[in-house]
Amino acid sequence: MSRIICPLALRGLVPHRRITRASYLSRSFATQARKIPARVWTPTPYVTETVGGGWHTYDIFSRLLKERIVSLNGEVDETVSASIVAQLLFLEADNPDKPIHLYINSPGGSVTAGLAVYDTMNYIQSPVSTICVGQAASMGSLLLCGGEAGRRYCLPHSSIMVHQPTGGYFGQASDMALHAKEILRVRHQLNEVYRRHLTKPHSLEEIERLMERDHFMGAEQALEMGIVDQVLEKRTVPGEVGKA
Predict the structure, then answer these.
(1) To which H or E segment does residue 217 belong?
(2) CA dist., res. 85 & res. 64, Å (int)
(3) Are 175 and 152 in contact (CB under 8 A)?
(4) Which tens digit of pLDDT belongs to each residue from 148-205?
(5) How far is residue 205's CA from residue 44's CA, in Å, rounded to a whole number?
(6) Quick one: 24 exposed, middle or buried, by C-beta within 10 A (0-12, 13-18, 19+)?
């Protein structure tokens, strides 16, 4: 049986990198991403099991991965994106027919990093169920909305926020014009993703107006808008890890 050790990124050990001019757009689709504090070390529980007379010790994220549970905690950046993409591909190779459960608690982050996760979710054969715990803001809300239809959930006190991407650039006038054109293209692309996945019908113009400013929602409001399919109060069958 293959064993996956969770990367340091999921333990919160990857330092926050300063935004540079070249990468500003790709890191800006977040709730005030520049004010997100640096990642710090957090205690990681370990689980020890007896298997075939021997002892196996896992960190908690690796143990959850065995149950086809993937956790997205914190800012969406290139390192976290690469880790989640790798886990999704591994779980598909292990069993393409079984669902994967992606738990999201994120303020958002990089557009390109988040779309890498989103595209992988749709690319693999395994259906990806998304569950919001805590918050799913900005790119986090897009990943929540982009889960398998009928399998997108949030807990009762979750907070969901949607808005348009933000960015900045300085340099030659011709380059500034190109970057302005690019961010408008990205905004249209993201709005199309929301329109495609919302269960309640919305025109592209309605979504653009909705995204004009930060739009905060509780669990019931997100359900009414069509970002999620159900608000979970309690697990229906105790003991079934990862099943909503």
Answers:
(1) strand 215-217
(2) 16
(3) no
(4) 999 999 999 999 999 998 887 788 888 888 988 999 999 999 999 999 999 888 888 8
(5) 45
(6) middle
* pTM (predicted TM-score): 0.79
Average pLDDT of the chain?
Answer: 83
Known catalytic residues are 138, 163
Confidence (pLDDT) at 43 = 77
| pLDDT top residue among 45 and 143 | 143
Classify 127 as helix, strand or coil.
coil
Q: Rounded CA gap, 236 and 156, in Å?
A: 15
Q: Judging by beta carbons within 10 Å of its beta carbon (0-12, 13-18, 19+), is residue 83 exposed, middle or buried?
A: buried
Task: Using the structure block, give the residue that is written with the tokens 């909305």.
Answer: 145
Residue pLDDT, tens place only, 63-83: 899 999 999 999 999 999 999
Please give the sequence-ordered ranges of beta strands (E in DSSP) within 9-151, or none if there are none.
29-30, 46-51, 54-59, 69-73, 100-106, 108-109, 128-137
Q: Are 118 and 153 in contact (CB under 8 A)?
A: no
Please state, in angstroms and as integers, the Cα–Cα distance from residue 11 to each residue in 84, 87, 218, following that order: 13, 15, 27
The SS3 of residue 147 is: coil
Q: Rounded distance, CA 27 to CA 45, Å?
A: 30
